[in-house]
Every structure is written in C-alpha cells, then in structure tokens.
C-alpha cells in the first residue's frame, strides 16, 4: 500500500507540470504517451496518468456535439477483477461533466472527482475545492453541473472491474462555455436579426 501511495504521489505531482497541446484530440491517440496533450474546441487536455498502467489507453472518438466536448477512451479489453486510477487535467471554460458507461462494459464502475486545484495524495481533493463528484456503473450515464463556470479541472477516476466483468470503453463529456468573442458574435447576430425584422415590419 505504501508503495502504491508513493507512486501515486509522484504521478499526481507530475500532472501539475504544464503541457503544450501539439494536436487536436484524435481517435487512436495513446493518451499515456509521454508528454501527450490535445485540444478539443476551447478545451485542452493534458498530463494523463494511470496507476497501475493497464496498457495503452487510446482515444476511441473525440468531437463536439452541441455544447458537449466528448472524449471516448479505450483501455484495451480489461477483465475483472481489475482496478486502476486514471487522471488528467482539463483547461478552458467548462461548467459540468457527463460520464457514460452504457457501452463497452459489464460489472464495472467508475467513481470520479473533479477538483479545482491539483490533486493531493491518492487523488484527494479538499472538500471546498470539489467541482463535481459522481459514480457510474455499467449500463449507466451520469452528469454533474458545477456551481460556477471553471477554467481548469483536475480529473481523478477510480476505475473498477468486478469479477467476471469487463471494460473496453468509457466516455467523458465536458459542458463547454462559449468564449467571449463567440458570445459577442452571437449577440451581434441576434441584434442584426432584430434590426432586420424591424425593417421588414416597416
């Protein structure tokens, strides 16, 4: 147990190091590759880690649907009993999360914490810094909204596969917030439509 905590401490302290995204998040990318970081819309994902490392964890799909930035992860084909920790950083304006285990798993569960500050030993987060916390089991989907918009989040997942179960896919979504320029353009467009309607009415 002490060895695990020491390894966890080293990995979690390492995730505080900044990373520069080199590419958009793409299917097939191994997020555990050294220095990997990627961008999806206004969000940047970096400093991925896992303990113990189950093997490559690849992006199965990535994209933006409506107001959600979605990442699907493929950790290979894990058979239970198996447990591991998985974490990463997200930077950019977002206001909530969604976790999906409706496909690619059986007898599995993920407990997730999103922290506003870098994680402590064993993925701990001060109570007053928890942005969201939820647990999802196979066949389920869960979501949690933040009390306020956040510009950064430190993700910690405790992943468990029960005896006789398996896990080959889990998805994570972030509810994104339009950037100020986007809001300005939307506002300008609405104003233009309003003026056009007034002209037509005259």
Characteristics:
202 residues, 2 helices, 17% helix, disordered N terminus
> How much of the polypeptide forms β-strand, as a percent range?
over 45%
Helix and strand element order:
HEEEEEEEEEEEH
Instruction: Specify the structural class.
Output: alpha+beta
Shape: globular
Helix content: 10-25%
**Main sheet summary:** 11 strands, mixed
Number of H/I helices: 2
Number of strands: 11
Distance between the termini: 77 Å
- The averaged pLDDT comes out at 84
Radius of gyration: 19 Å
Low-confidence stretches: 1-21, 181-193
Number of domains: 1
Question: Can you describe this structure?
Answer:
This protein has 202 residues and is of the alpha+beta class. The protein has one domain (2-201). Helices cover 17% and strands 51% of the residues. Strands 1, 2, 3, 4, 5, 6, 7, 8, 9, 10 and 11 form an eleven-stranded mixed β-sheet that branches. Strand 4 and strand 5 (68-74) form a beta hairpin. The chain is globular. Mean pLDDT is 84; it is low at 1-21 and 181-193.
